[in-house]
Amino acid sequence: MIKAVVFDFDGLIIDTETVWFESFKEILGAYDVEFPLEIFTPCVGTHGTIIDQYIEEKLGKKVSVEEVRRRVRECHRNKIINIDARDGVRDYLKQAKELDLRIGLASSSRKEWIHEFLKKLDILHYFDVIKSSDDVKMIKPDPELYIQCTDALNVRSNEVVAFEDSNNGAKAANDAGIACVIVPNPITEGIIFDNYDLRIESMANHSLKDVLNRITSVC
């Protein structure tokens, strides 16, 4: 019996990932450096070490990684001022409450970043538990975020369904023993997912109840 749902944040509740990619592409383009998607996607949901190595390799001593990152953050901040929740997110949160499910959030981002947008979108009140990089030693793909979230929700792993947009997030859920639904965004829709139980293109296309019934039948 499913007693709780846990959502990722970046790329799943709001599509910050597409905006991050566009921001890196724009800033690096100003230095005549291309930014291929295959450099970005392995970092979705986890550390950006590969991106930093790529910047250093391409720009060397011309400009520091820190300076590029600063310009990218500024660009990203300007682009997401009016960003909204992804299609179907609000409906899923409302349906979860109607189904008397506990609602958690497990994200590799900082808590301050998460709360800022949840408040802006007026959906913070839906969440019973929020676990972020501030709460753990290891972020996704390590399962610690999901393990802590499940414990705080006071449910067993087989009573939870996670919603993710990245392979790193799906692996974290899977390694925590949690069923995972993939809802890819434009950045992650083309990657091969290794650890998931169900994939849907949008939360707007399927009711939460239907998704949970499908998960129950395959798990």
What does this structure look like?
The chain has 219 residues and is an alpha/beta fold. The protein has 2 domains: 146 residues, Rossmann fold (3-Layer(aba) Sandwich); 64 residues. Strands 3-2-1-4-5-6 form a 6-stranded parallel sheet, sandwiched between helices. Strand 4, helix 8 and strand 5 form a beta-alpha-beta unit. It is elongated. It starts with a strand and ends with a helix. The model has no long low-confidence stretch (mean pLDDT 94).
Give descriptors for this structure:
219 residues, alpha/beta, Rossmann fold, 2 domains, 43% helix, elongated
Characterize the biggest β-sheet. 6 strands, parallel
CATH architecture of the largest domain: 3-Layer(aba) Sandwich
CATH fold naming of the largest domain:
Rossmann fold
The number of distinct helices, counting runs of at least 4 residues, comes to: 9
Shape: elongated
**What percent of the residues sit in helical stretches (DSSP H or I)?**
40-55%
Residue fraction in strands? 5-15%
Order of helices and strands: EHHHHHEHEHEHEEH
End-to-end distance: 11 Å
- What value does the Rg take, in angstroms? 17 Å
Uncertain runs with pLDDT below 50, 5 residues or more? Answer: none
Into how many domains do the coordinates divide? 2
Mean pLDDT: 94
The CATH class name of the largest domain reads Alpha Beta
**CATH H-level superfamily title of the largest domain:** HAD superfamily/HAD-like
Q: Helix/strand-derived class?
A: alpha/beta
**Strand tally, please?**
6
Strand order of the largest sheet: 3-2-1-4-5-6
